Amino acid sequence: MPSSPRSHDLYTVEQVRALDRRAIDELGVPGIELMRRAAWAGLASLRRHWPQARHIAVYCGPGNNGGDGFLLASLAREAGLRVDVLALADTAHGDAAQARATWVDAGGIVRHWDAHEALPSADVHVDALYGTGLHRAPDADAATLIERLNVGDAPVLALDVPSGLDADSGRCPGVAVRAAVTVSFIAAKRGLRTGQAADHVGQLELDTLGLPDALWQGMSADAHILLAEHLPPRARAAHKGNHGHVLAIGGDHGTAGAVRLCGESALRSGAGLVSVATRAEHLLALNSARPELMAHAVDGPQTLEPLLERADVLALGPGLGQRAWGHALWLTALDTGKPLVLDADGLNLLAHEPRQFTRPTVLTPHPGEAARLLHDTTENVEADRFAAVRALAARYHAIVVLKGAGSLIADPAGRVAVCPWGSPGMATGGMGDLLTGVIAALLAQGCDAWRAACLGVGLHARAGDCAARQGERGLLASDLLPHLRLLGNGLEHD
Q1: Chain-centre distance for alpha carbon 402
Q2: How deeply is 445 buried, as exposed, middle or buried, from its count of CB atoms within 10 A (0-12, 13-18, 19+)?
Q3: Which cofactors must be present for this protein to function (predicted)?
Q4: What pLDDT is attached to residue 5?
Q5: Is 455 flagged in the annotation as binding?
Q6: 2, pLDDT greater than 70
Q7: What is the pLDDT of residue 145?
Q8: pLDDT bucket at 4, cuts 50 / 70 / 90
Q9: CATH of the domain at 433
Q10: Domain span including residue 258
Q11: pLDDT digits over 247-263, tens only?
């Protein structure tokens, strides 16, 4: 399916409903016609992905999503497919009632879903239960149906939203459909791109139902999907001083690996010079493994200060610890007011001693660190990742990367970008240290904090996808390093 020109714009459910009303009230497209177009789009997706399918089963709820399903069933039977329709309720309402009547008037049979019966042995199941209309856990009968679909052998096509998934937040309050393909209508819903949605949407498509560009005029998207980018070629007369000096600060006793990964990723991402301020015990290992890193023994603020003076950007936190040594270095580094990337224990210290930043700053918390920074719970952060990342950016006056499936980047004004790349293989130690170095290197090369965060998150996730071609399980953070170099130069495609 060709990519929609609006596929990188993400909207809230409220915004999509407003677009739907505008199409009906201002453009004069009847609701039943929108439903018919959605049915055509769903059937086209089904035939495209499963051209061999001869028998489908469609599961309809009582609302408009169910109406899409009834009309898809009618179109599929007209196309010669065998179609079973099962409904959660005996009636439908609004335009969905007309759609149901279309199916019945043409001789179609509607079976009421009975949890004691087996699902039809269809080639493809079509989920048209709830769409965007559910923000709670499905009731018992619907939950049983969804569980049966999830354990079955046949693939599931979800219409608009996998049922049970919150289209605003990406969370699943209860059980949710695990679709092989989701075809979304009119506008891309932001919740389908982050959090638990990664386990439910499958291949995600968007069909704008042939609506004109005028529909979107005056409505700004709530968020945007990142585009694949890289830095421009360097000037032929460039020298190392043109590309910035990153100082990575961290590596308390036993954590030399964290600060080394941070420093090495900064080098692989194009920083001209990278220094490391760490414990004396780590110098031999760092110099032996990566001599390009300028490793320095630092026992306190006095030995750190000369290094801070020479640096352009600070990468603060990997392996830093929260004891006296790490805390003293953290305070000294922050007091310089230099651009910085703050991660790991640098964030945990910030949670205890909050401050707003006046220089370009990027914070890179995972959900647990985000919860500590907000004095909230991890569960609440994950329940609405968009609200959490915006709250963090406003509270600390910084660019914030909320890591996880569908990482989010926010600025203090509320702008949000969503990362569409990455895999479960990246859920391993050292990945965050790597990201800190990438973003610091981009800051050092002249990117502003927003662009450094967006480009850095994108390069990091895409490198993870490239490395995962050899398998997700067993992926190491250092496996990303050669791909970071290639992607940063535009020499590899994920």
Answers
A1: 9
A2: buried
A3: Mg(2+); K(+)
A4: 63
A5: no
A6: no
A7: 96
A8: low
A9: 3.40.1190.20
A10: 240-488
A11: 999 999 999 999 999 99
Lowest-pLDDT range, 80-84, 329-333, 442-446, 490-494? 490-494
Judge whether 135 is annotated as a binding position: yes
- Residue 67 assigned as binding residue: yes
Is 437 marked as a binding-site residue? no
Is 131 flagged in the annotation as binding?
yes
Based on the domain organization, do 244 and 205 belong to the same domain?
no
* 290 pLDDT above the threshold of 60: yes
Asked whether the beta carbons of 291 and 343 are under 8 A apart, the reply is: no
Provide the angle, in degrees to the nearest 10, between the axes of the packed helices 345-352 and 324-335. Answer: 80
The answer to whether 432 is annotated as binding is yes
Report which of residues 250 and 238 the model is more confident about: 250
141 known member of a binding site:
no
**Model confidence at 494: pLDDT above 80:** no
Choose the final residue of a domain: 222, 254, 286: 222
Q: Is 66 annotated as a binding residue?
A: yes
Tell whether residue 403 is among the known ligand binding residues.
Answer: yes
7 belongs to an annotated ligand binding site: no
My answer on whether 208 and 309 are in the same domain is: no
- Whether 417 is in a domain gets the answer yes
User: pLDDT grade, residue 1 (50/70/90)?
Assistant: very low
Check whether residue 307 and residue 348 sit in a common domain: yes
Identify the domain boundary among 222, 253, 276.
Answer: 222
| Distance between CA atoms of residues 216 and 211, nearest Å | 9
pLDDT of residue 240: 85
Contact partners, residue 125, CB within 8 Å, separation at least 6: 56, 57, 58, 59, 119, 149, 152, 154, 155, 156, 157
Q: Is 134 annotated to bind ligand? A: yes
Q: Where are the beta strands (DSSP E) in 20-155?
A: 55-60, 82-87, 110-112, 124-128
Which stretch of DSSP H or E encloses residue 10?
strand 9-11
> For residue 214, what are the contacts with CB-CB under 8 A and spacing of at least 6?
27
Of the candidates 467, 383, 380, the one whose C-alpha atom is nearest the C-alpha of residue 422 is 467
Please check whether residue 234 lies inside any domain of the structure. Answer: no
The verdict on whether residue 404 carries a ligand-binding annotation is yes
65 is in an annotated binding site: yes
Residues with Cβ within 8 Å of 15's Cβ and at least 6 positions away in sequence, in order, are 187, 219, 222
Same domain for 30 and 102, yes or no, is yes
> Known binder of ligand: residue 133?
yes
pLDDT at 248: 98
Alpha-carbon gap, residue 279 to 282, rounded angstroms: 6
On whether 406 is known to bind a ligand per the annotation, the reply is yes
Q: Is 269 annotated as a binding residue?
A: no
Is 410 among the annotated ligand-binding positions? no
